[in-house]
Amino acid sequence: MVPFGRQKKVGLILEIVNESDLPKSKLRQCINIIDQDPVFSESDLWIISFASKYYQHPIGRVIAAALPTYLKKDRPAISLVEEIQITKKGNEIIPDEIKKRAPKQAQLISYLQKKQSITVDILNKKTIEWKSQRRSLLKKEWITISHVPSKLNTQRSISIPIKGPALNSEQKIAVNKINETQYFKPFLLDGITGSGKTEVYLRVILEVLKTGKQCLILVPEIGLTTQFIERVIQRIGIEPVLLHSSLTEHQRFKAWQMTRNPQTKLILGTRSAIFAPIHNLGIIIVDEENDISYKQQDGFRYSARDLAVTKAKYFDIPIILGSATPSLESLNLIKQKKYTELTLQKRAGNAQLPSMHLVDMTKGYAPDGLSPSLIKTIKKHLKKDGQILIYINRRGFAPTLICTSCNHIAQCLRCDSRMTVYLSQNKLACHHCGSYREYTEKCIICNGEYKALGQGTQRLEEVLGKYFPNIMIKRIDSDSTRLKGTMDEALNIANTGKARILVGTQMLSKGHHFPSLTLVAVINADQGLFSNDFRGSERLAQSLIQVSGRAGREDQKGQVIIQTEYPDHPFWEALFEGGYKRVAEHTLQEREAASWPPFSYLALIRVSSHKKDFTWEFLNSAHQIIEKDKLNDINIMGPVSAPMERKAGKYRGQLLLHCKNRKSLHQQISLFIKKIERKKCTHRVKWSVDIDPIELF
Ligand code: ADP
Ligand code: ZN
Fold it and tell me: Do 93 and 209 belong together in one domain?
């Protein structure tokens, strides 16, 4: 605990030195030391300091991200308990001889002679009255008392594991290759959806556990992991320690403490679990490695996937990156032979990959966003007892509210964005800042008629209800699952097949296994075709493959229908003829030609402020600094306003640095940070540096 301005704060001692560059008058004294033993081990600190240097983020902030919040409030990480030990002298006492004189002492000594030592919390549970004897026993030097760390909770086996299916030949090869490896080696487990990647993880985990080492499994979102966790328990018999953001402060601390215990075998968590204090690590598994959730998008902007590889290297252990749609970064590393590729090309068991079709939306009349041929296909699948997933990446009723006479579009007052219409709640809401206002039927400018334009999940739910009045339709998006328990309930209805038509956003597109689902319809994929981010087509292909993978996971073959107004776009040909791999190959070529990542490295400087002038003052100053000591191979792109310049009342701008050489880029950025921090213009803005940004705004 240290003084911090007028407050006190919890700090972490990183180093003890004999001298300081600061004058003595500037040095302050610790208030007290909360933990006697180090909270972080050498390996924990190694990854923390690596992340701080790599992401150019102050080490204090990185530690704050790695340390459970519970410990930032004057609480010891390791709680101590008193332990009573019997001395040599005490061991020589014959309890029967003192029994008459001091029966209580005799009872305790006889007990201690059997156990030699015992912590008081356990002793308190026995019916041995000892507190009154403590002083006397200490004085006679029959016992000593010391403080020891209280026992950490241990992960226990909770059931007898059941045997898994016999592996197919591709799975066998993958499992054998990984199990053969005892040193650092990154494997990319590239397996189509439903090909049995999870089965491979489970076999590898079982093998690692035999060696007494620990396994860390990273997943993009905990909400999508229920089925996976159940499978782990079934097959391994252990409940993994879970680390994720929906835990309470205390739960998180408990989980963190469990992970420090070398007896803890299995740790499963989201992004921040990469900082879990695991000291006897045997393998790291990163499921859905391409998922953008692995990158923290604010504050300390790190990639848990990339840090996982670094951590595996530090521990000199294998790491598995699994995906049906690997990131272009990983695919490129395969080409460079830095990663080893393991492929699963067949669906496991009897399941087959679904067939895919495009529907040309420029032909025919589809006023409510559903083409006649889609309606026909839905009917067909319903008849055969199939379940249907209607996928659209927009929640709400409609994304736009426009006036039919003056063409005025309802805008957010705090953002450069349109308001989304929520008809049933009679409101307009902004998805960027969360503000909302009442919906009016008449235009606020000319009093003309408003019209809701385009489709959102709520509108589709309504329209489908008209086409299929006797069918249970379930909408699953972040609006419908906001309340606690509603997500589980919705998934349950989806899983049992009770809801025959599901309308959902990307929330439903990954990870789920709905047994009776046979048809996936993608309503509006076109936005992705014209994205102004260079990662647009990679993302579009990934989400389409992901959502397609929900169809036909069991015996019934699945079908996927994609509606588009641009059927001639070359993206479709690549996707339909060569699948994800072809799109990835094309995109890699384009990126190489344009020298975008993974063929170069990026650092993005972002700034925002409530006044446009302040934002630009910073941007110009940043530009000047970088220009002045610019290394030869650095390209400066910008400064420019962010694509959505105003968000939540703040004006946003950015400056992108591009370089073929990671070292130069890091050098340039660290020089820049040192210089800009001294400038006044930083006081009036919020600014950040994002190394390896995955979103360019
Ligand atoms: P993925 O993780 O690639 O999506 P899973 O491991 O979840 O795939 O496997 C999909 C389904 O196939 C699961 O129901 C799983 O139990 C089953 N499965 C996996 N491997 C085999 C196998 N070798 N034989 C039979 N069924 C399998
Ligand atoms: Zn807004």
Answer: no
436 inside domain: no
Tell which one of 173, 197, 199 to mutate to probe ligand 1, the residue whose CB is within 8 A of the most ligand atoms. Answer: 199
pLDDT digits 0-9 by tens, 329-354:
999 999 999 999 999 988 877 767 78
Distance (angstroms) between ligand 1 centre and the Cα of 597 equals 33
185: left (phi over 0), alpha (psi -120 to 50) or beta: beta
Based on the fold, state whether residues 567 and 492 are members of the same structural domain: yes
Distance (Å) from CA 388 to ligand 2 centroid: 33
Same domain, 614 and 586: no
* Residue keyed to tokens 């006023």: 367
The residue contributing the CA closest to ligand 1 atom 19 is: 196
Q: Taking a C-beta distance cutoff of 8 angstroms, is the pair 607, 687 a contact?
A: yes
Residues in contact with ligand 1 by the CB-under-6-Å rule are 165-168, 171, 191, 193-199, 348-349
Cα torsion angle, 336, 338, 339, 343, sign: positive
Q: Tens of pLDDT along 50-96?
A: 999 999 999 999 999 999 999 888 888 877 778 888 889 888 888 88
Ligand 1 centroid distance, CA of 78 (Å): 41
Same domain, 27 and 145: no
Residues 38, 10, single domain; the answer is: yes
| Two tokens, residue 315 | 């521990």
Residue among 270, 261, 273, 240 nearest 47 (CA): 273
CA of 668 to the centre of ligand 1 (A): 47
The residue segments making up the domain with residue 628 are 601-691
Question: Residue 549 CA: which ligand 1 atom is closest?
Answer: 4
Q: What is the pLDDT of residues 404-458, one digit of tens each?
A: 999 999 999 999 999 999 998 999 999 999 999 999 888 888 989 999 999 999 9
How many whole angstroms from 287 Cα to the centroid of ligand 1? 15
Question: CA 114, 115, 121, 122 torsion: positive or negative?
Answer: negative
Among all bound ligands, the one having the nearest atom to the CA of 416 is 2
Q: Are residues 223 and 175 in the same domain?
A: yes
